[in-house]
Design brief:
With about 700 residues, chain A is an alpha+beta fold. Helix content of chain A is about 40%, strand content about 15%. Chain A has a 7-stranded mixed sheet with strand order 1-9-8-13-10-11-12. Chain A has a 6-stranded mixed sheet with strand order 3-2-7-4-5-6, with helices on both faces. The radius of gyration of chain A is 24 Å and the shape is globular. The model of chain A has no long low-confidence stretch (mean pLDDT about 95). In chain B, strand 3 and strand 4 form a beta hairpin. Chain B is globular, with a radius of gyration of 11 Å. The chains are: A alpha+beta (about 700), B mainly beta (about 60). The interface between A and B is medium-sized, with 37 and 20 residues.
């Protein structure tokens, strides 16, 4: 590969989780520079997506679009990221303006890139500009040099590209474990839902594994910039590289949870055996598994794709498998030597990472597919093509419902028959998305784009499109049915980046446990949980060890939903690394600062107010008679008890009454949540709130004052 | 009548915690059960007989990824 630029830097020692330095690369003119991270930035933005949002704000203007040169991609782990004593400590957060609506997007991902970048000397990486040439950025943390190469590699899909780059850069087999690569795949040339793959080298399998920064189309930005790959190397990972203030504190918390996982995981979620896919059948049992574009929450054929099918027939490993050192929860999973049946890799035997729960629901039930082989093949192609599995499932489900509703026909798709469950044509569709051909090019642009396209070209009813198109703020819904949980409707709708469940997952607390019956209760949950969950993305941690293993003490704790013992672990490791002396209340306040900053960033970019928090009615209730009648007893009972409506009336009249009731509930919830968060009725953070958070920065006041 | 998660349920004589979990199809494993505020150990679900008027809480500890 041709070397285009290089930059030597001085090594630094990380102190209490920070290098106090970031790396900036402008690929337009191949300029490489370092930036000091000031104390105030650490205090107000902490790290991870906080750093990403701060840098992105400074780089863009309200006029900047996703494909403007000044749009940045920022990758950062966080002060705790990279420790090896506590499970789930290797996360990276990626921030950029999304092609879905040109607002800030954040996406979290496992793999080794973020921690290795930090050990190489940088708390964050900013990439700005655009290149006409395909570039590979290489950061060598041992030689302390950054190089930019012009790529001479013709491979484009992530599984091949990352293997080749690992082979090229690593000196030998042992050296491969010291590399992590960021890339996307062929779909990133055309699709708005293209994602980034982050690698880690699986020493046991001697193969490169892929983890995904899936949400929000940042893979498309990456490709548009002319980036082929980012490569980081650091040899010498060990447990104290963060130079923590109090390593004993971290060690004690780690030992506590490792013992807990060892004792209880098998009887609880069985994460080490099947990972998040353990809940496929659970979601079905509670009528929460999205089926046929979120129409229904269960399907009789779920038995063909339940977790034990994957465990018994496809997942091939015998030992727990994590995506960062020291993660004993080990939820990573893979099917080895999986033979591909279609597309450019037909006949090849590949490794498929997964399936995660979201993959099984998105690539399975939501598009009417109950074939585990097909789910794994779609999983493989989504990963290597660089397509977000969640968005793929939700956008294909929407396209299928539109097809079955007669909005378009196979004459419009050049023969593709997109009925729910049509396996060969779904596989053909994913190959079209990746090659930017045929109807796949339209579907690959996402639900928001399709809604407009179908209205304009197929004369589709705009109201029906809004009702069944499961996107908000441009982002496709993740894979849970929220119809029977008002709190989760807010957990999806009253968010910064759109309906992704990483802000709040309240369905069981609300619908089943009935722990938050009033609007005030729900609003409190929609304050605490989004803020608590935001904190993980500031410090470089994975959320799963918080709530996918339960300590014994939880049974008798006052607030079991919060997992108090684990919260204390997080307080301990955070203080242990950084030397701070914070409480959980301080951590929530730190998250609030960044959360409100992101909200105001959205407003600055033209989104982020009440109108943008409206959700499609499919997320709240039955859009069609078919849906109503499928759960008629439930809906009739609610109409009688909650609305006092005469259920002897026609189904259409009952649907109308139910809709009025549920939409009004959502508005009342929105009022309550805004009030709890310190926002105006229009969803704008007030100046008083910003002062209270010590976030009354001039640039934020300037944005909000126009909207208050 | 007894309360299950603060909702009225028809009382059936001799009904146990295990019966409720089965009837309600509470298949998720991570449950915390309390009756009248007192924790019930999972090993007692089969034998713990609910009384008329009891306040039963069966809370699921599932909070998403």
């Amino acid at each position: 590969m041709k070397l285009l630029a290089e930059y030597k830097y001085n090594p630094t020692e990380i102190v209490k989780g920070y290098n106090d330095r970031s790396l900036k690369i402008d690929i337009s003119d191949l300029a490489i520079s370092e930036k000091e991270i000031p104390q105030q930035m650490k205090e107000k933005f902490i790290g991870g997506k906080g750093f990403g949002l701060r840098y992105l704000w400074d780089a863009v203007t309200p006029e900047t679009k996703w494909n403007s040169p000044e749009n940045e991609i920022v990758i950062s782990s966080g002060p705790v990221g990279g420790i090896t004593q506590y499970p789930g400590s290797g996360k990276s957060l990626v921030v950029s303006l999304t092609p879905l609506n040109d607002t800030p997007m954040d996406s979290n991902v496992g793999g080794h890139f973020g921690p290795l970048l930090k050990f190489a000397g940088f708390d964050a990486l900013e990439i700005i500009g655009k290149s006409a040439k395909e570039l590979i950025v290489y950061i060598d943390g041992n030689e302390n040099i950054v190089k930019i190469f012009e790529s001479d590699i013709d491979k484009i899909d992530s599984h091949e590209l990352s293997e080749e780059l690992t082979d090229r850069f690593a000196a030998d087999e042992i050296d491969k474990r010291n590399y992590s690569i960021v890339s996307t795949g062929s779909a990133a040339r055309y699709s708005n839902v293209a994602m980034l793959n982050f690698t880690f080298y699986d020493v046991k399998r001697q193969k490169v594994r892929l983890k995904q920064a899936g949400r929000g189309g940042i893979g498309r930005v990456f490709n548009d910039k002319g980036l082929k790959a980012l490569v980081v190397k650091y040899a010498g990972v060990k447990s104290d590289l963060n130079n923590p203030a109090n390593i004993a504190k971290i060690n004690r918390a780690g030992i506590r949870i490792h013992k807990e996982i060892n004792r209880f995981d098998t009887a609880q979620n069985n994460m080490r055996k099947i990972g998040t896919a353990n809940i496929i059948e659970v979601m079905n049992d509670y009528d929460l598994l999205p089926t046929h574009n979120f129409k229904f929450g269960a399907h009789e054929d779920v038995k063909y794709i339940e977790s034990k099918v994957f465990i018994e027939k496809y997942i091939t490993q015998d030992v727990p498998d994590g995506c960062w050192h020291g993660c004993s929860l080990s939820c990573a999973k893979a099917a080895d030597d999986f033979e591909i049946m279609t597309g450019p890799y037909k006949g090849q035997k590949v490794i498929v990472d997964g399936p995660e729960y979201e993959n099984a629901a998105a690539l399975g039930s939501n598009i009417g597919i109950f074939c585990p082989r097909t789910i794994l093949e779609l999983n493989f192609y989504c990963d290597t093509y660089g397509i977000d599995t969640i968005s793929f499932g939700t956008m294909v489900a929407f396209a299928m419902e539109c097809y079955e509703s007669g909005i378009y026909t196979k004459e419009d798709t050049n023969g593709l028959e997109l009925n729910f469950g049509n396996i060969p044509h779904t596989l053909e569709l994913i190959h079209q998305i990746a090659s930017g051909e045929g109807f796949g090019k339209i579907v690959g642009m996402g639900v928001k784009y399709m809604k407009k396209y179908f209205i304009k070209n197929f004369n589709a009813d705009p109201e029906f499109m809004f009702d069944i198109g499961m996107e908000q703020k441009g982002l496709e819904y993740s894979e849970y049915l929220s119809k029977e949980s008002l709190a989760q409707q807010g957990g999806y709708g009253l968010t910064n980046k759109g309906p992704q469940h990483d802000e709040a997952w309240l369905i069981f607390m609300d619908m089943v446990n009935n722990q938050i019956p009033t609007f005030e209760d729900k609003a409190e949950a929609l304050h605490y949980f989004p803020m608590f969950r935001t904190w993980f993305g500031l410090v470089g941690l994975c959320k799963l060890p918080w709530n996918d293993i339960t300590p014994q003490s939880n049974a008798t704790s006052k607030e079991p939903a919060k997992m108090p013992e684990h919260v204390q672990n997080y307080v301990d490791i955070y203080n242990g690394v950084t030397g701070k002396d914070v409480t959980i209340h301080d951590m929530i306040k730190e998250s609030e600062r960044v959360y409100n900053f992101q909200r105001i960033f959205n407003i600055r970019m033209g989104y982020g107010k009440r109108i943008n928090d409206k959700t499609p009615y499919r997320s709240m209730g039955p859009v069609t008679e078919e849906e109503y009648l499928s759960r008629q007893d439930r809906y009739d009972k609610q109409l009688e008890e909650l609305v006092g409506f005469d259920v002897s009336k026609s189904t259409q009249e009952k649907m109308k009454a139910l809709r009025e009731y549920r939409e009004n509930q959502y508005e009342l919830l929105t009022d309550a949540v805004y009030k709890r968060r310190g926002w105006s009725k229009n969803g704008v953070p007030t100046i008083e709130k910003l002062k209270d958070l010590e976030m009354d920065l001039p640039e934020l006041i300037e944005v909000v004052k126009e909207h208050l | 009548m007894y309360k299950l998660n603060d909702r009225d349920e028809k009382y059936v004589n001799g009904i146990t915690i295990a019966d409720v979990i089965k009837e309600k199809k509470f298949t998720y494993k991570k449950l915390i059960v309390k009756v009248n505020g007192k924790f019930v150990d999972p090993i007692n679900y089969d034998n713990y007989i609910i009384r008329d008027g009891d306040d039963v809480k069966i809370h699921h500890l599932l909070a998403g990824g």
